[in-house]
Amino acid sequence: MTTSPAAASRVATRLRLPARVRPVATPALLFLLAAWWFLDGISQPGVQTDEGVTLVVIHRSLPDLLRLWHGNDATLVPYYLLAKTARRLAITSRLPLSDLTVIRSLSAVAMALACAILYALVRRRADARVALAATVALIFMPGTLRWAQQARPYSLMVLASAASWLMWDKARDEGGWRSRLLYATTVVFGSVIHLFLLLQFAVQFAVALVHDRLENGVLSRRFTAARNIAGPLALAAVVAAYPVVHMLQRGHGVPSHTAIPFSHLTATALQTITSREGPQQVGPFVVVLVLAGLATLVQRRSRHAVTFPLWLTLSFALQSAAAYLQPGTLRLRYWMALSSPLGLLVGIGVYGLASFACWALSNTVLRGVSRGQVEWLRTAFAAAAVASLVALTLPTNTYVRSPAGHGTVADTRGVFDLLRSTPQNPLLLVDNRFNIFAFAGYGVKYVYDNPYSLVQPDSAYAWSYPRSPGALRRALAGHVFVVLARIPKPPAVTGTIQRVQGELVRAGYALVRTQQRGPWAVLLYRRG
Asked: What distance, in Å, lies between the first and last C-alpha atoms of the chain?
């Protein structure tokens, strides 16, 4: 039985998506794919030091959390408020999830939204298949997975960057008040979620100027694109002026005196985004595809083709300058905003290499093939390249999901077995101010790092700060069990450990047993 062309047309019309749904169908499917990929196994990796700080902070009362606005963690207060809100919503909804899983899920959803937005942005300026390749590349980069599963603000940073560039693209071309207002909103959000995104907004204005020049061959007197961008940037500057200036003055985080060698900056930044740790390094493959993407855009010589390379190269140049001028304050995780243009250029590079391969074959062994066959072959080559990239990243992505996948300072699982065996909440003391927060996700009620430095919920600091030995003895008096843990290192007993042991003895505690759990020496004290 055959179907008439008219009947087939009617069936196709019925199967077509509504006009309003069609533009968002593919981004929605990509969002669901990314969300599944990022949420799968999200509770497996151990608590990384900075994640522990997040968990400690969100258990503060709202007034105590807002005290951080006057300390050196002021830059993270907007993120902490979002994380605390997510935890409160999870509790209200009675979701059977730990606090760590809830806060990590906030990052996962933000990164999935960033991937969908990247597709929408590339689709505006390139072929849908290029947009799909770019988005899949971003989803499966191991660095993307790592930060999508961390209770820190770097996924929100990627989201703010991608959203601002999409709204920038619309405001630049359309110039309507709605597009400008949406662009200004994304700029404000990005400014308060992470100060390093201010560099991206400077790049956006510069690219708008370049757009004007390419539009007319000479610099236009009207500056149409630049004017469309300058207004929203000015509005955002007025709205975000106070929080940004305040955070610039206050927010320095934990001081670091380690300079990043400038000669290794590019390689390390790329590694952070593509494969920071694990058995498989995909950086070189990504570099080849990025260079192929840049070459493809240069070859096209389109006025729009300059946008994507400048997004990456100018942003990279400004962040490199910041790293060179202030090496002690830069963290390479701040480079995560560059993951979107990297994924974008990877997608363009995939199709650029596929086009070159098709051109070479059609002029040699495949002479006389039709244009449709060449197009099919180009799509097949591009799909094979994307599949190869995904396959290369799978071992590293598997590692990222493992208990050690987020770069925990030390394996603490053995210690938790002992903590769980105590009949009451223990008081934990650790001989390292950074390691203490690795225990924050495991129900330890109070955490100290040495007898002179305590974490207090009513202070203006998320990290520890000095207190007197007498205050420690008063705190110890109300507990039955105390667990003292440290990383073994020569000498076998450090000065800090000796001081803590002395304070415990003076507070009426006796050593019950000593155990070795992985890299930790665990000393269990009981009162009397």
From this structure: 92
> How many C-beta atoms surround the C-beta of residue 498 within 10 A?
11
Taking the C-alpha atoms of residue 314 and residue 327, their distance in angstroms, rounded to an integer, is 19
Number of Cβ atoms within 10 Å of the Cβ of 207: 23
Instruction: Tally the C-alpha atoms within 13 A of residue 214's C-alpha that lie toward its C-beta.
Output: 14
- Residue appearing with tokens 């363009």: 348
Which of 410, 476, 487 has its CA nearest to residue 445? 476
d(CA 333, CA 283): 16
**Closest to 342 measured CA to CA, from 302, 315, 374:** 315
Q: Are 134 and 118 in contact (CB under 8 A)?
A: yes
CA separation for the pair 227, 225 (Å, rounded): 5
* Count of beta carbons in the 10 Å neighbourhood of residue 445: 10
Tokens of 472: 């420690």
Q: DSSP string spanning 70-110?
A: GSTTGGGHHHHHHHHHHHHHHHHTT----HHHHHHHHHHHH
| Residues near 368 by beta carbon (within 8 Å), at least 6 away in sequence | none
Quote the Cα angle for 231-159-267, to 5°. Answer: 105
pTM of the predicted model over 0.90? no
Q: Which of 157, 106, 125 is nearest to 339 (CA)?
A: 157
Going residue by residue through the chain, which has 528 residues, state the pLDDT in tens, using 9 for 90 and above.
Answer: 444 445 444 444 444 556 566 678 889 999 999 999 999 999 888 888 788 889 888 988 999 999 999 888 889 999 999 999 999 999 999 888 888 899 999 999 999 999 999 999 988 887 888 889 999 989 988 788 988 999 999 999 999 999 999 999 888 887 788 989 999 999 999 999 988 899 889 898 888 888 766 655 555 556 777 888 888 999 999 999 999 998 888 876 555 545 555 555 565 565 556 555 554 566 777 788 888 888 888 776 655 667 888 888 888 888 878 777 776 666 777 888 888 888 888 888 888 888 888 877 777 766 666 777 777 888 888 888 888 888 888 888 888 888 777 766 555 656 666 666 665 656 666 655 556 676 666 666 555 545 445 566 777 888 766 556 666 666 666 555 666 665 555 444 455 566 667 777 777 778 877 777 666 667 777 776
